[in-house]
Amino acid sequence: MSDEELDVAYNVRRKAGPELFDRHMARYKDMSEHAVDGLPGHPGIVYDEASGERLDVWGVGGDGLRPVFVFVHGGYWVALSRGVSSFMARTLHEQGVATVVPDYTLAPAVTLEEIVRQVRASIAWVHRHGREHGLDPGRIVVGGSSAGGHLTGMAMAGGWQAPLGLPEDVVKAAMPFSGLFDLRPLTRVYVNQWVKLDLERAAALSPALLPAGYRCPAVIAVAEHDGTGFLRQSRRFQPHWGAGELMVVPDRDHFDVVLDLADPESAVCRALLGLVRAT
């Protein structure tokens, strides 16, 4: 593909246009604030001493340990935060599921390798300290959107768990949305001015090119009206993973598909709850 074609395939903000993009971002913020207003939880916990990054725990209850959905926000690794990424927390709480939303240091302040390390550290924190906060460390489901979908894929990959003292199956199920699973094309698009990848590093950070280890159940979700690059990546990653299904969500775009997690009647939310219950 030419550089221009790659930009069309992966520049979903331009595809949406400024008005629609701003409306989506306002929904992220408003829905997240509403979701956690009065919700039992433990916000602002430092999960990684090296970086000082924090996470929020939402939707814990007095009925014993709850399965947990760890949601990793998107923003092409350079934007957004946990504060606008908890829009599903109330819905999941009502279904008996807790939500953990970690921040990670944004590029270009750190490398993408460091961002991956931090996200994996957040999962390690849930496994080690979850019980103290009402979370079941044996029932961790990880998901994320866009760049968060890539980071979900890096949590699904094998080989990182043992050095952190974690079981290979610490991630019991996964649901990446509009994920980036092969980063090599991104070395030629605008986002690389911040993440600064070469082909060798891009390959080493690509879930589709890494050994899988334990193949957890997964739903690989992507929007019908997503960027063509994201659609192509999801369709290729699903058979590579080999332990999940591809869900192309109709009438949704790159930014609003993940908001369906706040609607318990949506196919997206039902799919996530199915993964949780299967743990």
TrEMBL record:
Show the InterPro entries listed in the entry. Answer: AB_hydrolase_fold, BD-FAE-like_dom, GDXG_lipolytic_enzyme
Q: Provide the BD-FAE-like domain boundaries.
A: 66-155
> Where, by residue number, does the polypeptide cross the bilayer?
none
The record's keywords, sorted A to Z, are: Hydrolase
GO MF terms, alphabetically ordered: hydrolase activity
The superkingdom of the source organism is Bacteria
The molecule here is called Alpha/beta hydrolase
Q: What does the organism's lineage look like at the top?
A: Bacteria, Bacillati, Actinomycetota, Actinomycetes, Streptosporangiales
